[in-house]
Amino acid sequence: MNKNYVCIKVDREERPDIDKIYMDAVQLMTGRGGWPLNCILLPDGRPIYGGTYFHKEQWRSILLHIAQLYRNDPEKCSTYAQELTEGLLKMESFRQGDSVSELLKFNWNQLFVNWSVNFDTTDGGNNHAPKFPMPNTFQWMLDYHLLHQHPYAAEHLQLTLNKMLHGGIYDQLGGGFCRYSTDMEWKVPHFEKMLYDNAQLLSLYSKAYSRFKDKNYLAVINGIFTFLSNEMKSKTGLYFAALDADTEGVEGKFYCWTLDEIKQLVPEDRFQIACDYFHFDKKGYWEEGNYIPLLNEHIDEIAAKHQITSDAFVAWMEEIKSTLLSYRNKRVRPGIDIKLITGWNGLLLTGFCDAYQATNDKQFLNAAIELATSIIQQLIKDDQLIHSITPSEINTDSPQQEGFLDDYACVIEGLIAVYQISFDESYLLLAKQLGDTVIKQVSTEASPLFYFTSATSEKLIKRSMEIQDNVIPSSNAIMAMNLYYLSRYFDEPAYLNRAMQMTTLVQKEINNALPWYCKWAQLALFLEQPPIELVISGPEAQEWMNQIQVIYRPNLMVAIAKQDSILPLNKNRYAAHETVAYFCKDHQCSGCCCLRIW
Q: What is the CA radius of gyration of the chain?
């Protein structure tokens, strides 16, 4: 490698723009993508070969062959690189072609049926391993269930959420979810913990709790929050990117247990109870004498088996959890990726807001306000977002990578969410300001869709557009949803028109591959029917709003009309002495002084 090549290692989290270009190139060459991503380029950055994992001898052979080809026939290399680069540019062409005049009427039931053939009806999720949580897909499933009264969508959603929270992918002692499950049962995870997964799963479980009132979902909400607060929060108020899977070179070492350890820590008369509860048995066994804590769903049966009351059993298990966690905290901890990534913190901002709406627990409100303040103070430079920073770089003059579209989209989404729990209009005004920055800097006249990078970014072989959802939803889809909300709050038809035009350009993709376009599909659901607008004003406005928001309702626009409000939505709706709620749909409004009409 060092003899024939200039070797460059790219952190895909710091430079997702570079990663996307060469991931697209590898997918064109091989029909598949993934990581580790390896790509061989000409000196001008054009790719000529790539792939994911190669074993040593295979990699050696490839390197020698391409080095020889480049020496002996550089023109052939250049011709192939040019053809491949032209193919990369054509990947964006449909997004800049003729736009569809109007949004299709989707057959959601048929699309869901087509998707459901790939469901795992035993353990939830899809019917193949590895299993990724993909919270965005289940967010769409929840909205589809609520807007179209589809029972099977709710059934599969709840099955998946239940199986995940009982599995090894969820840290049963410290809270928080791991990256993915290597098996069909959510049992053996890849033990890495990512901020973006936990931020989105906090949102998902919060909304599911608000609709289904499952106390296990509330436990997960609090568990994720505890994990983030204890292990991912920096002194700056922002949150770190990830925890490593390995400890001392061994994956999962920090999280697993031997039976000898359990015997030493748990009283003898409770040892078997602990084993039953955490599945320290054949089901929970992993490898080399190690067990992964799983959660037994049948608490009442375990209590009956050991002839104790359910309340006593729960109290005992809380004591045992505390003992095991205290012991685990003395182990060598996994390494931590201390990057503070703007977009991921934006996702978490939305997560905190969703948790507050679902629970009315002020710890989530306080966390949201603190995080919003940290983002505004530390991640906005010269009225623009930066992409990431480390704690040591804050308050220094060190140069920073400017923000990408996903940073803007996720932060704008989070700021809109903070307004919807605090009703401080400064958050909406900043969201609009950042949205206008996006329109100015990453637009193209050829398409309503946005580039991933701004016009002032480093020039690469192409400017990409991120359209398809992955573990994080498409940045274009999030941005379209933001424009949808901003259009309603600020009465800006241009925002709404652009959101609709963006969605029409990907409607074929929604029809052909719904699971990979669920954020777009969520917006399409909203665009099919006018939103409900709820404005409350008066001395009890916040209390009324809390009662309403504790039940998640998709496509609901909320505002509190204050005397100094500048929002068109609040015009002529301020009430000083009487609490009044205005319900509007399709510009038809009514006013009432009670909540019973909801």
A: 26
